[in-house]
Amino acid sequence: MNSNSRLVAQMFDISFFIWEMFCEVELVRDVKVVAEKADRDGLNFQRYIMARLLENLLKERASKDHGYFIAVTSLKSIGKGQCKNKSQYVTFPITFGCRTFVPSGGEILLGVVRHVFRRGLLLKCGPINYVFLSSRKMPTYHYVGGKNPVFSSNEFATIRTESAVRFNVLGVRWIEKRGCIKKEFVMLASLEGSNTLGPISLSEADELGLQT
Fold it and tell me: Does the keyword Transcription apply (predicted)?
């Protein structure tokens, strides 16, 4: 993984994904450059283009077709710049390779519990902020209320806020915009079907880089 890939990986906190789950796609995006920076010669121009491209992708975040934009892996071409209406900016079409993550049903993933409430858990899984695990989908656990609510199982396993949990993805839905949610995939999760699903040990969480 190159330095740009590592940088964006850290920004998205994706250390707990298996790399085989990622895709490599070729994308084209327009990048605006201040006219005085538009000299195409030299490594500095390419670095400037890459910096602006990364900045734009972080703002764009994700798309329905390609999933979350994780890292720019290669700069393939820089098209002819265009300056419209005497603008102070020059726009270049950039073709580049991009590593993306497209969540899909049936995968086994890891997440960190953000909220515990009677009806279930809300987890964060890498760039995915909304993973809902219904209490109905963890039948061996029961809700224990109080100031710091938890879900406890008959086998003495406990899930609380900040717990790391291995889960099965039941379904995924793309939301363009709804309330405060914008350009996000939301997941439904389950702990049914395997005794390997559920909270993982602190040592395993540390090894996977899940502890905050």
Answer: yes
Give the model's pLDDT for residue 5: 45
Q: pTM of the entire structure?
A: 0.76
Angle 28-31-33 (CA atoms, 0-180°, nearest 5)? 155
Give me the helix-helix angle, 43-60 and 3-12, nearest 10°.
20
- Given the DSSP bridges, would you call strands 62-63 and 22-34 parallel, antiparallel or unpaired? unpaired
Tell me the pairing of strands 128-134 and 181-190. parallel
In the block, tokens 């201040």 appear at 34
Residues 79 and 117 reside in one and the same domain: no
Same domain for 140 and 202:
yes
143 and 90 co-located in one domain: no
Of 101, 134, 167, the residue that ends a domain is: 101
Query: Can you give the residue range of the structural domain that contains 201?
Result: 108-208
Work out how many domains the chain is built from and give that number: 2
pLDDT digits (tens, 9 = 90+) for 77-130: 999 888 877 778 889 999 999 999 988 888 899 999 999 999 999 999 989 999
| Confidence at 181, pLDDT banded by 50, 70, 90 | confident
Residues 29 and 96 in one domain: yes
Mean pLDDT of 174-181: 90
